[in-house]
Amino acid sequence: MSVGVIIPAAGSGTRLGEPVPKAFVKLGDRTILEVCVAGVLDAGVADTVVVVVPADLVDDARRMVPEATVVAGGAHRSDSVRAGMDAVGVADVVLVHDAARPFTPPAVFGRVVDAVGAGHPAVVPGLPVADTLKEVVPGDTSGIEQVRATVDREPLRAIQTPQGFTRDALRAAHADDTGLATDDAGLAERVGIPVHVVSGDPLAFKITTPWDLRIARDIVAESAR
Ligand code: C5P
After folding, report:
1. Residue 23: CB within 6 Å of ligand 1?
2. Distance (Å, whole) CA 71 – CA 112
3. Where are the beta strands (DSSP E) in 42-151?
4. Residue 6 and residue 81: Cα distance in Å, rounded?
């Protein structure tokens, strides 16, 4: 069973507040992208790795991660994933893995690949939700929002990457893209493909905010000690 991995890394990372796009922010000596690609290679599941970056950073990325094929991304995450699909070649299983989750342990890759190999067309890693979740009345701009309801967290999962698909399932999912989905499994659900969840890992957290970046830098500093 051949496995291709697409790493979307073409986001601007506005919420991080850094002067360079998120995947090019440094964690110690290496960029988030370099740490992520090294992690994917360490997992030992990938036959091919495709990295998708902003068009003006393709040459920089090629120098940074020579092990990967580097292509230019698009305006939305799903545009970037499709650019990666065109470059990934023939693979039985395609994993889509956010560059912004550079510490994802090898075992998570293994669980996702195994579940797709066992016959599930779309598989995502997920974790139970720890916080109490409340739905608020939308549209409030005052900064004080009114609660509409408390949501039952028991059946909810916070979804991570890598998300794994048979090649056909990923193609079918992306054939009907509205540009609004925040993950690939969401697109699969829309076209009726069953999506299954395997256990994720706290280390697969996504670097999104300055707080996440601080934690990521601490992890790298601690592992260098
Ligand atoms: O914006 P968000 O944090 O959800 O992005 C998740 C991943 O998708 C990041 O690794 C980001 O670089 C990537 N992305 C992309 N192309 C875009 C937007 C996001 O490759 N247009």
Report:
1. yes
2. 25
3. 48-53, 69-72, 93-96, 122-128, 133-136, 147-151
4. 7
- Judge whether 160 and 125 are in contact, CB under 8 Å: yes
Cβ-in-10-Å burial (0-12, 13-18, 19+) of 81 comes to buried
Pick the residue whose CA is nearest to atom 19 on ligand 1: 11
Place of tokens 């507040």: 17
| Residue with the two structure tokens 């794994």 | 164
Contacts of 105 (CB under 8 A, 6+ apart): 201, 203, 204
CA-proximal residue: ligand 1, atom 2 (nearest): 11
Exposure letters 94-123 (e unless 16+ CB within 10 A, then b): bbbbbbbbbbbbeebbebbbebbeeebbbb
Q: Which atom of ligand 1 is nearest to the CA of 101?
A: 10
Alpha carbon distance 162, 219 (integer Å): 20
Spell out the domains of the chain, with CATH numbers in brackets: 3-220 (3.90.550.10)
Q: Where are the beta strands (DSSP E) in 73-223?
A: 93-96, 122-128, 133-136, 147-151, 157-159, 163-166, 195-199
Determine contact, residues 182/163, Cβ cutoff 8 Å: no
| 179: pLDDT strictly greater than 80 | no
* Per-residue model confidence as pLDDT tens digits over 105-144: 999 999 999 999 999 999 999 999 999 999 999 988 888 9
